[in-house]
Write a structure and sequence with these properties.
Radius of gyration: 17 Å
Strand content: 5-15%
Oligomer: single chain
Helix content: 40-55%
Number of helices: 10
Shape: globular
Amino acid sequence: MQVFHLSHIDLDGYGCQFISYHFFKDIKFYNANYGREVSARLHEILDDISRALEPKRKILILVTDLNLTLNEAQFLQEQSDALRLQGLEVQVLLLDHHATGQDAAKIYHWYHLDTERSASKITFETLQKLYSPLENIENLAPMVEMINSIDIWQEGGFGFEFGKVCMRMISSTHELNRFMFDEEHRAYKFALLKKVPDYLHQERGEVAFDNDLFRLKKSLWGVTRI
């Protein structure tokens, strides 16, 4: 199966992709902020699929932490239907928690909306039900709970203060421009997220991680993959 994964550009969005990386070997990532960029990335994904058409190839278009407008959802449905007519086994799966997607969620069966959990938690729990991980994912569960706490603002939740540090880390990691160096920019963020489990269970781990971020970033210059 080849996976095309579009997600948001915040901690929750990159968290979703860090999770899916542990489930799929053949995966291509895309990121978008809200607005026109979502539509642009959907077109990019469909163009990439069309350029590499292989009959009976299984394709998963995975969208996380982004709500689609009715027009965007309709476009994705129509284009995936067209690809099926060309012989591809195309599945669409959208996992989100933004209430603004309710209208589209009511129409399209592939649009899964849950406003009670972060997109990372929805993605982690959904992928575990549908697919087998490529490796041990024991370390992912605490990170997912931390992201869930900060993203839906549960102040008493696990790792809430740590989540503040991670949220700032993701939003301020601009050393590599994401438009000019898309893959390297994402890999840089992934590599930093990979360090989180080393600190998450430490006493005042959020302070230690925050203090070490500059050193960790310096050690990762030139990263192109995790």
